[in-house]
């Protein structure tokens, strides 16, 4: 399902790469990079599995990192650009953060992209942001598939047909930079069984996506995009990516209370059986059951507050605040946050002996 034409045109016009007069080719290359399997890691600039930047220690890395995106509007205003350009610029920074998280072995990445209170912003701004989130999931579909199929699997263009139709054989949210991969039915008439296995291995070496929040308030096209991505990445296992869109920590707690109350009312649960663990299981973030609580929460733009993000889950989360605006958040800033985390003495309420 496509975005409304007006939104697509606005997204194109607001590209910060175009408005600054520069070429988007380098950004485009990064977004359509090859998958994070060992066979191609070196060719796309990712470290081999287990190799970290100097100063990071694998045993001290957070397993779950949460990030609050903030500062897009200020980033645009500082450059004399419209607010929409700031929202458009959040995408490359988000892709880079996902790529680095995957490369450095972060197990879960949760991104607070849009609060349930952000609906109070001007409709034009909200509509544009929804388009950015949709594009983040499924941008560059045809281009990425063609590059992978022709370059990585060594398939020949003359043997491929119906390349860009939406007759889907499988979809895989497999990139370290979070791109939808679509392989249409009949894409390659002469591909071998070995090539098919390579494609399947490729898509499984990737990202498992889940969108949390009040999804009923999202545009229909974004609901469809999110649902399809979740279904098709269900088997991926390298990193869990949770996107908070129309999410609020208090609303999450409230909906968990309602579900528990309904179970008690239906005599499926006794009040005395309600404990921390049971309550946590009803939160939306319980989807990533291995590491549901963030070890590190990063907030950009210099604001020093949680802003209703993962309130229950962040009881013992280490906080890192940076003055960097989100579109400027990159490898150096992420590395600084992880280094800070490694220096913390986490006692979880216990006294150090």
TrEMBL record:
A cellular component term, taken from the record's GO annotations: cytoplasm
Matching Gene3D superfamilies: Decaprenyl diphosphate synthase-like (3.40.1180.10)
Superkingdom of the source species: Eukaryota
Composition bias, Polar residues: 1-27
GO molecular function (one): ditrans,polycis-polyprenyl diphosphate synthase [(2E,6E)-farnesyl diphosphate specific] activity
Gene Ontology BP, a term: polyprenol biosynthetic process
A UniProt-annotated Pfam family: Prenyltransf
Protein's UniProt keywords contain Transferase: yes
Enzyme class name: transferase
Alphabetic keyword roster: Transferase
Cross-referenced InterPro entries: UPP_synth-like (IPR001441), UPP_synth-like_CS (IPR018520), UPP_synth-like_sf (IPR036424)
EC number: 2.5.1.-
Disordered: region residues: 1-36
TM region positions: none
PANTHER family (alphabetical): ALKYL TRANSFERASE, DEHYDRODOLICHYL DIPHOSPHATE SYNTHASE FAMILY MEMBER
Family, per entry: Belongs to the UPP synthase family.
Stated name of the protein: Alkyl transferase
Phylogenetic classification of the source organism: Eukaryota, Viridiplantae, Streptophyta, Embryophyta, Tracheophyta
């Amino acid at each position: 399902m496509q975005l409304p034409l007006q939104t697509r045109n606005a997204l194109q016009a607001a590209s910060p790469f175009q408005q600054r007069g520069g070429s988007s080719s380098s950004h485009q290359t990064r977004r359509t990079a090859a998958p994070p399997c060992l066979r191609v890691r070196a060719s796309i600039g990712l470290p081999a599995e287990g190799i970290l930047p100097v100063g990071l220690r694998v045993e001290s890395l957070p397993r779950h990192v949460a990030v609050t995106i903030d500062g897009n509007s200020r980033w645009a205003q500082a450059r004399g650009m419209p607010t929409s350009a700031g929202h458009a610029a959040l995408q490359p920074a988000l892709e880079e953060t996902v790529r680095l998280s995957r490369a450095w072995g972060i197990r879960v990445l949760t991104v607070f992209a849009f609060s349930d209170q952000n609906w109070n912003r001007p409709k034009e701004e909200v509509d544009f942001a929804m388009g950015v989130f949709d594009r983040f999931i499924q941008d560059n579909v045809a281009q990425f598939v063609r590059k992978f199929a022709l370059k990585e699997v060594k398939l020949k263009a003359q043997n491929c047909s119906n390349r860009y139709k939406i007759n889907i054989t499988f979809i895989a949210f497999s990139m370290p930079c979070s791109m939808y991969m679509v392989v249409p039915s009949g894409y390659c008439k002469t591909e071998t069984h070995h090539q098919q296995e390579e494609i399947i291995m490729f898509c499984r070496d990737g990202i498992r996506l889940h969108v949390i929040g009040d999804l009923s308030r999202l545009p229909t096209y974004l609901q469809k995009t999110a649902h399809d991505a979740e279904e098709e990445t269900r088997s991926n296992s390298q990193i869990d990516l949770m996107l908070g869109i129309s999410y609020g920590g208090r609303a999450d707690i409230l909906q968990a209370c309602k579900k528990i109350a309904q179970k008690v009312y239906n005599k499926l649960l006794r009040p005395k059986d309600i404990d921390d663990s049971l309550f946590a299981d009803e939160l939306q973030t319980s989807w990533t059951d291995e590491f549901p609580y963030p070890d590190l929460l990063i907030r950009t733009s210099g604001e020093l507050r949680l802003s209703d993000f993962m309130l229950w889950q962040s009881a013992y989360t280490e906080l890192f605040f940076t003055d960097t605006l989100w579109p400027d958040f990159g490898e150096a800033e992420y590395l600084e946050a992880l280094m800070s985390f490694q220096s913390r003495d986490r006692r979880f309420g216990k006294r150090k002996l």
